[in-house]
Design brief:
The complex is a heterodimer. Chain A is α/β, with parallel strands linked by helices. Chain A has helices at about 20-25, 40-45, 75, 90-100, 130-145; strands at about 5-10, 30-35, 50-60, 70, 110-115. Chain A is about 30% helix and about 20% strand. Classes of the chains: A alpha/beta, B alpha+beta.
């Protein structure tokens, strides 16, 4: 197996926003993992010198809550930009990574998104549909990484 | 003027909103900055043991991950009637300073500098960190990121977790520093000092050498005259982790100072009909409205406020930079808001120099990192200078240290009045006769970016940032244009 890392993004205190953390909890010991509360430049630091990186995060794109979507960030980044107030989105983070560290960035990066239902309620548990998606995400990650 | 009614909105899918109302000539009549801050953490904390609160509040915001942690930890110290040991205080401060470096670097290179390096009216696709790296070169971009990672490593070494710090305890810190770690911190601090020096160099070369930018820096478009709140030590030097809070007026005279719970004697909050967020003001001056100038009761916090209040920095390179900026503006207080970016660069350097200073003391590897706890006092206030401004955490507990009440005042709340005025001034200047386009949008955005808003970005689902929407209404309150910095 090539060297791999799975990065979980999210806030574990805001219901479905914690889905990334929940996935990581189930992968510890099987593969290198790390969790961050948000996407910013430290994601680059975490994934450098790995062959493959998988990033798991909640998404809100209008599909049914619990839908699991695999995104290729290189093909999908389009014209995203960050004139937001505070943080940098994952597409920009990855683009910066490839721009600045072309040799050290993973050859393959995948984002696995889970459509969220509720990210506003303070709750350490995910909503039922998102909770049901967690094993599917883990299975997908194991398939990608050829883990048993 | 027509009466305008703006009803508080629902959460607007998590973005902030600026509403600009035009008069019959198409010029700006009024502006309202609305942001829905998520206030649920206070309720979430009730029933929690106070010693768990720092680790929990450190998750309020992934960008602000150290500040809520530290403010809550200081409050927990007071609740347990204790203070950290000298060694623990130094370890806490090093973590806090490392956070300053990572935070200020990201904000400057991703948010502030692209406007100037890439061009104020460049397209959004160019005016970002990627565009900045294209302009300055990949090698420089790589060097900046590597040096920033040095600060992140210091943070993780002390904090205990990559995502958010967990190593603090009431009365101290949960682990001692080894000599090997101390030496590593010294090495990393040198890299951070170089990062600070380089950031100031870029600022001077790109901005201060450009007459158009100098005019903007010194001009009236991006100028907001308020009182200021910040923290200093006993000698009046600018500090971040601990000190006394000071208010100065618009002319730089001290209005008063406070510690801890005394903040309640100084800060009042005005409920607004059109926003969920209240607007703080200086209590003794009374509410004067959203006005700036000599008579205002509004105040600002953050890097520029700190510089206005303090009499300098306690490290040589930062002090030299302090003298330079004061000379550039012809004295203090400085009300030109673009200076926030400049001061951020100075603070980045100051934080790095301070880490080196503290870590040079071999005694920080001492094993005495935890003080005995006293009797539960039932109330504690922790105040720190977060990178974006004064942060107050106020907790009440029962006799067992279980939280019964919590009140958090964040920097963006303190700055609400100033931000509203800043946006309005920019809008009035750039929007004339109903002419609005993307370039003008950015010139308005430049007005609030120096304040580095944190709109309680506790959640961040893809695309992973907090969008801002600007809605423009004509004299009949009809929406005529809506501009966004995000895609649907």
């Amino acid at each position: 197996m090539k060297r791999a890392i799975v990065v979980g993004i999210g806030n574990p205190n805001f219901r479905d926003d914690g889905v990334g953390f929940k996935v990581i909890e189930n992968l510890k010991g099987l593969v290198d993992t790390v969790c961050f509360l948000n996407t910013d430049l430290k994601v680059i630091d975490a994934i450098l010198n790995y062959d493959i990186a998988i990033i798991v995060d909640g998404i809100k794109i209008g599909t049914e809550p619990g839908t699991v979507i695999e995104i290729d960030p290189v093909k999908s980044w389009k014209n995203v930009y960050a004139s937001g107030t505070h943080s940098i989105n994952i597409f920009e983070v990855i683009r910066v990574g490839y721009q600045v560290f072309p040799e050290e960035m993973p050859k393959k990066i995948k984002i696995i998104g889970v459509e969220v239902e509720d990210v506003d309620t303070l709750d350490k548990e995910c909503s039922p549909k998102v909770k049901e998606a967690i094993p599917k995400v883990i299975l997908k990650i194991k398939e990608i990484l050829k883990l048993s | 003027m027509q009466k305008i009614e703006l009803n508080p909105m629902t959460r607007l899918e998590g973005h902030g909103k600026i509403s600009i109302f035009l008069d019959d000539k198409g010029d700006v009549d009024n502006v309202f900055f609305q942001a829905v801050e998520f206030m649920g953490y206070e309720k979430f904390l009730i029933g929690m043991p106070i010693e768990e609160v720092p680790r929990t509040v450190s998750t309020i915001c992934g960008v602000c991950r150290a500040v809520h942690f530290m403010a809550a930890l200081k409050a927990a110290d007071e609740i347990y009637g204790t203070n950290p040991t000298p060694t623990a205080q130094k370890l806490r401060e090093i973590l806090f300073l490392a956070h300053y470096i990572e935070d200020h670097t990201e904000i400057l290179y991703a948010m502030g500098l692209p406007d100037f390096v890439c061009g104020l009216t460049a397209s959004p696709e160019e005016r970002n960190l990627i565009g900045l790296i294209r302009k300055v070169g990949v090698d420089i971009g790589k060097d900046v990121l590597k040096k920033r990672f040095a600060a992140v490593r210091i943070f993780e070494m002390l904090g205990g977790k990559p995502s958010h710090p967990v190593a603090g305890l009431p009365g101290g810190w949960s682990k001692r520093l080894t000599e090997e770690e101390r030496k590593e911190i010294l090495r990393l601090a040198d890299e951070c000092i170089e990062l600070g020096k380089f950031t100031l160099k870029i600022f001077k070369e790109v901005i201060l050498n450009n007459p158009q930018y100098v005019e903007l820096m010194k001009g009236d478009v991006y100028k907001v005259i308020t009182n200021y709140l910040g923290t200093v030590d006993e000698e009046g030097k600018i500090v971040y982790y601990d000190g006394v809070q000071v208010f100065i007026d618009t002319e730089g005279n001290e209005i008063g100072r406070f510690r801890g719970k005394e903040y309640l004697d100084w800060i009042s909050e005005r409920t607004l009909e059109w926003s969920y967020i209240k607007a703080p003001y200086i209590k003794k001056f009374g509410w004067k409205g959203f006005v700036d100038g000599k008579e205002t009761s509004l105040y600002s916090v953050g890097p520029l406020a700190r510089l206005n209040i303090g009499n300098g920095y306690d490290t040589p390179l930062a002090q030299e930079a302090y003298e330079e900026i004061v000379e550039f503006f012809g004295g203090k207080p400085i009300h030109n808001t673009l200076a926030y970016h400049w001061v951020r660069a100075i603070e980045l350097l100051h934080a790095a120099e301070r880490i080196k200073k503290i870590a040079s003391d071999e005694s920080i590897t001492d094993g005495n990192v935890r003080q005995e706890l006293g009797k539960v006092s039932g109330e504690g206030v922790g105040i720190v200078e977060a990178p974006r401004g004064t942060l107050i955490h106020h907790y009440k507990t029962d006799e067992n240290g279980i939280v019964t009440d919590a009140n958090l005042i964040v920097a963006t709340t303190h700055n609400k009045g100033a931000i509203n005025i800043a946006i309005k001034k920019a809008a009035e200047n750039f929007i004339k006769k109903g002419k609005i386009n993307e370039e003008i949008l950015n010139l308005v955005e430049i007005a609030y970016r120096p304040y580095d808003l944190c709109l309680a970005c506790a959640t961040h689902t893809l695309p992973g940032r907090l969008p801002i929407q600007i809605d423009i209404y004509n004299k009949d309150k009809e929406l005529i244009k809506s501009l966004r910095n995000f895609e649907n």
